[in-house]
Specification:
about 90 residues; alpha+beta; 4-stranded antiparallel β-sheet; 2 helices; 4 strands
């Protein structure tokens, strides 16, 4: 019989997040400073403009999928008050 290998391409979605870039985000930054580093957030809730979500996934050919996420909360002054990375 024939052995067929089905071609699949790597699939990258979202804002590219690596540890070096994510480490640049810290408490006390403004929304402008964050967007200069990460760009526009992937998800910006309508009812809570003070929480920005950046999500990234990479599925390599025939291998596992890598997921990274950073959630940034801003206080009323528009300054980063909390960061969740995973």
């Amino acid at each position: 019989m024939y052995n067929y290998i089905i071609y699949t391409d790597d699939i990258q979605q979202g804002t590219y997040l690596d540890d070096k870039t994510m480490s640049k985000i810290h408490i006390g930054m403004t929304k402008t400073e964050v967007s200069n580093i990460l760009g526009k957030p992937i998800i910006e809730p309508i009812f809570n403009e003070d929480t920005w979500y950046y999500i990234y996934s990479l599925k390599l050919k025939h291998k596992h999928t890598t997921h990274k996420k950073i959630i940034i909360n801003f206080n009323q002054a528009g300054v980063v008050s909390h960061i969740t990375k995973s």
